[in-house]
Design brief:
With 279 residues, the chain is an alpha+beta fold. Helix 6 runs parallel beside helix 8 and helix 7 crosses helix 9.
């Protein structure tokens, strides 16, 4: 067993979904069957599609905690060729603040709460408990890696993991323009009417919600990612006409919390889905 494969299995056992990296810290490319997303996978379009490819395709979306997949024949070949091990922070309920230089580290030490840190080639990774939208260059030398992103796995790790602070979330919040709609005074934002309602009958919405609940309930791994993708799918289909109510959203949150998601994680996933869709 290669060292990379052993590391990946250890990560998966602790609930951290790994994936192999090639030289240059980049994921393995899509295979021929998945080239140009012919398989339906859409990692660059916010939502990876249903792909049964046995290879580690689709970048961050390939990360998994399933040991049978990680130790499969095709993945073992990738681990032998891999230059490093990466993981999907969002899939593990984590956010990585990637500090690329001494100036960025100094800013973090003066501004952010202390948390678990990892030394990198050029700087440090500060790891927080909680997920958020990923973003590059939020400040000079600082990237945010969480949902729909991967980070290189490095050791040793120091310190206790602190909760994701608002000061980190604020790094990716854009200042609202005058033309934008004023935020709704709701604990869980529900999009308002943006066009003609496409639902000829409430049955269409109810069936969609039932399918979404079933998808979350059936998840056996990557719960965080499944909840986010489900919220995204519901919003993209039902979020633009005003039919989606707080009662409907509560059904989705209840299903997610039954799988172990915290209310904070549910709120984060919903907010990230709204942001991804521009709602």
């Amino acid at each position: 067993m290669s060292e990379h494969l052993r590391t990946a299995l250890d990560l998966a056992a602790s609930g951290v979904p790994p994936l192999p990296l090639r030289a240059g810290k980049v994921p393995f490319g899509n295979c021929r069957a998945c080239a140009k997303n012919a398989c339906g996978g859409r990692p660059n379009m916010k939502t990876p599609g249903p792909c049964a490819c046995p290879r580690p395709c689709h970048g961050w979306a390939a990360a998994t905690t399933d040991p049978a997949v990680i130790n499969s024949r095709t993945w073992r070949q990738a681990w032998r060729e891999a230059a490093a091990v990466a993981y999907h922070p969002g899939g593990a309920g984590l956010t990585v603040v990637d500090l690329d230089n001494a100036e960025a580290i100094a800013w973090a030490r003066a501004t952010l709460p202390a948390t678990r840190t990892v030394q990198t080639t050029r700087g440090e990774h500060w790891i927080y408990q909680g997920t958020m939208q990923s973003a590059n260059a939020v400040r000079p030398g600082i990237d945010i890696k969480s949902l729909m992103q991967y980070a290189r796995w490095l050791t040793p790790r120091e310190g206790a993991t602190a909760p994701l602070p608002d000061s980190v979330r604020a790094l990716v919040v854009k200042q609202p323009s005058a033309a934008r709609r004023a935020p709704q005074a709701l604990t869980v934002p529900v999009p308002g009417i943006r066009g003609a309602c496409p639902h000829r009958t409430p049955t269409y919405l109810n069936r969609g919600l039932a399918m979404a609940e079933a998808r979350i309930t059936a998840a056996r791994s990557e719960i965080h990612a499944t909840v986010y993708r489900t919220f995204l799918a519901v919003l993209s289909t039902h979020g633009g006409c005003g039919c989606l109510t707080e009662t409907h959203v509560a059904r989705l949150f209840t299903a997610a919390q039954a799988k172990g998601e915290s209310p904070r994680h549910c709120t984060d996933a919903w907010a990230n889905a709204l942001t991804a869709l521009g709602m």
